[in-house]
Automatic annotation (TrEMBL):
<keyword id="KW-0999">Mitochondrion inner membrane</keyword>
<feature type="transmembrane region" description="Helical">
    <location>
        <begin position="101"/>
        <end position="118"/>
    </location>
</feature>
<keyword id="KW-0375">Hydrogen ion transport</keyword>
<feature type="transmembrane region" description="Helical">
    <location>
        <begin position="171"/>
        <end position="199"/>
    </location>
</feature>
<dbReference type="InterPro" id="IPR000568">
    <property type="entry name" value="ATP_synth_F0_asu"/>
</dbReference>
<feature type="transmembrane region" description="Helical">
    <location>
        <begin position="205"/>
        <end position="223"/>
    </location>
</feature>
<keyword id="KW-0138">CF(0)</keyword>
<keyword id="KW-0496">Mitochondrion</keyword>
<dbReference type="InterPro" id="IPR045083">
    <property type="entry name" value="ATP_synth_F0_asu_bact/mt"/>
</dbReference>
<comment type="similarity">
    <text>Belongs to the ATPase A chain family.</text>
</comment>
<keyword id="KW-1133">Transmembrane helix</keyword>
<keyword id="KW-0813">Transport</keyword>
<keyword id="KW-0812">Transmembrane</keyword>
<comment type="subunit">
    <text>Component of the ATP synthase complex composed at least of ATP5F1A/subunit alpha, ATP5F1B/subunit beta, ATP5MC1/subunit c (homooctomer), MT-ATP6/subunit a, MT-ATP8/subunit 8, ATP5ME/subunit e, ATP5MF/subunit f, ATP5MG/subunit g, ATP5MK/subunit k, ATP5MJ/subunit j, ATP5F1C/subunit gamma, ATP5F1D/subunit delta, ATP5F1E/subunit epsilon, ATP5PF/subunit F6, ATP5PB/subunit b, ATP5PD/subunit d, ATP5PO/subunit OSCP.</text>
</comment>
<dbReference type="InterPro" id="IPR023011">
    <property type="entry name" value="ATP_synth_F0_asu_AS"/>
</dbReference>
<dbReference type="GO" id="GO:0005743">
    <property type="term" value="C:mitochondrial inner membrane"/>
</dbReference>
<dbReference type="GO" id="GO:0046933">
    <property type="term" value="F:proton-transporting ATP synthase activity, rotational mechanism"/>
</dbReference>
Length: 227
């Protein structure tokens, strides 16, 4: 029984071909496409307004040099939002519950921000490893601690996103299983668990959106430190 709860997190395949690529590229079909019309429909206008709002929120903590990353950061948060929300639908697979995928997103972008800082302002970037006014005997220990905290950032990004989404999916499956199992014996308790399931689903929608925003926001803060 315990293994069946985790089967939803295994990467689906058909005839030995992994279908995770289809799950990752499907959200692109929901994005607005370019056209030559001056007047667009309401859906396209709403999508463009939402993307513009996200871009403004992400660019607030960044200076003008960081605005070059607007396309990358906005595309990433829209990608994560769509994948997280589509993963809440029944009989769907959520690629962001895979730690390997989240690390593959976090590590290259974190490394790019780090290399940007080392190229543009190496002294300031290396200065983050040693706080000003540190006593001389504590310098080696603080350098090791700060270096470890710097290197663990991409791991923390990936693990945070994976853990929050995985826990939410497991809770939804556990409560839905209990609702079905109790329906024949205790209908009143089953209706109560159904209400809890409905509230939990609303909470998971909020968690899916918040975790996508936090993932990209932390990357933007890492970028701000290096520019």
């Amino acid at each position: 029984m315990n293994l069946s709860f985790f089967d939803q997190f295994s990467s689906p395949s058909l005839l030995g071909i992994p279908l995770i690529l289809i799950a990752m590229t499907f959200p692109a079909l929901l994005l607005p496409s370019l056209d030559n019309r001056w007047i667009t429909n309401r859906l396209s206008t709403l999508q463009l307004w939402f993307i513009n709002l996200i871009t403004k929120q992400l660019m607030i903590p960044l200076n003008k040099k960081g605005h070059k990353w607007a396309l990358i950061l906005t595309s990433l948060i829209v990608f994560l939002l769509l994948i997280n929300l589509l993963g809440l639908l029944p009989y769907t697979f959520t690629p962001t519950t895979q730690l390997s995928m989240n690390l593959a997103l976090a590590f290259p972008l974190w490394l790019a921000t780090l290399l940007t800082g080392l190229r543009n302002q190496p002294s300031a970037s290396l200065g983050h490893l040693l706080p000003e006014g540190t006593p001389t005997p504590l310098i080696p220990a603080l350098i090791m601690i700060e270096t470890t905290s710097l290197l663990i950032r991409p791991v923390a990004l990936g693990v945070r996103l994976t853990a929050n989404l995985t826990a939410g999916h497991l809770l939804i499956q556990l409560i839905s299983t209990a609702t079905v199992a109790l329906f024949s014996t205790m209908p009143a308790v089953s209706l109560l668990t159904l209400l809890v399931l409905f509230l939990l689903t609303i909470l998971e929608v909020a968690v899916a959106m918040i975790q996508a925003y936090v993932f990209v926001l932390l990357l933007s803060l890492y970028l701000q430190e290096n520019i």
